[in-house]
Amino acid sequence: MRFPLLRRAGFSALSLLVLGLPAPALALTAAQVWEEMQQISERGGLRQRAAVATPGAGTLTLEGVTLISEEDAPRVTTLIDRLTLRELDTGGVEIVYPPQLRILLEDDSGVGIDRAELLLETTDLVTLASGAPGDMSFDTTTPAAVLRLSAFEDDGTAEVSEFTWTFTDLALSSAYGAEIADSAFSVAQMSGAVALSAPEDDSALRLQIALTDYAFSDRGSALLMSPTADTAALLTGQTPYSFESRHARLSLAVGGQIDGVAGGAALSTTGGGSAVSFADGQVSVASRAQGLDIQALVPSLASPLDAAAANMALQITLPATPTEDVRPIGLGLKLQELTVDEEVWAMFDPVGLLPRSPATLEVDLTGEGRASDDLLDPRAGARTMLDLDSLSINRLVLDAAGARITAEGGFDVDLSRGGTMPGLPALSGRIGMTSRGLNGLLDNLAELGLLRPSDVMGARMVIAMLTTPSNDPDTLSAEIELKPDGGLVANGMRLR
Known about the structure:
mainly beta
């Protein structure tokens, strides 16, 4: 199922609303604000016009306002019956919208949706413009808004029976300078429902989402809005960009059938957020969630599978563009107190040999390296895009099924020559490791038939060669060094 037209609908609706952070109050005129709105639209690849413009005493009434995308396909046209711009005593200009805006989406390519119409219905939607020409800010508020699908035509292969998004206490703001834009969005409650189907394939899906206390802010969005956006400036940090979001409760559910086979999944969190930044030739991505719960409906099982985690976090830092010097890299991952329901355990441990205690995985890696390709270069494909120079294991913890393994250390990487292991470069450095319950886990896996006796024997030989036992039961430790000459030293004994 393909729905290319719907991808631009959200931007077209928000482009009408997101126009502001407060700037110093100057005596703006309604005509100046209207001209600025048109210029901002053009920077985003849109053309904004009015069929009739009627100036008055401190007012400008615009009738038959259209906002049209410059792209050939899909074409997005927003229709506004009337806009009223009123000059305020404070020096700003108030923009009053009608209660309903129409958004038309059209595609003549013959693939997917041919035509769709969305209605944006709002209550007391008002924008306040302030600042000065060329450096203007816009603040938009509405206590309630609904974006819904009112008409749909396609090539006969797909249907959209539902498309509805509702917003409560919505606020949007943007500040537009000559070369950069900052924006912010917040909403007390947001929910959406989308239902899609492809009768020829016996497929149908329904998506539902709900958020409370959602907010995002970004800086540098003007670069991304432009159809001629310079990604090189973004990657090198000449034009920094950053995005950050947060939310309280989130629930997401999708269900239906694909080729006649039913399935579905649901996800919920009690809080979370994400962040992205491009600066100084580096890209950083972070995501976090608290109180995570995931359910999945598997056709072969009678009841949904359930997994939960108290906390989940991911952070990645990489060089975004090739450079002569090395740049910082980083990978952080936390999955704390992970639990799965008994049906999952019963798939491979029906007799209950393995402890069901919550599992934890923590990874904290830092280092230095060089990017061999631009991060956003589509020609890079599946090639290795990062050449490591050094890697530090600041923290590694795996606690699951009755065993706990921890590690820390660091390595230097020599890409000029191969290492002792095929396919890997030469490494030098050290790593310290401890384990508890590892032998017991091997015994349990063998008894469950998940490991062959020969596998267990081989694993025990390696463990005996690299580790030393502790006074505590089933507790091992290891101090391993890789020498620049390719030598291997374990616990002070040279093995190679």
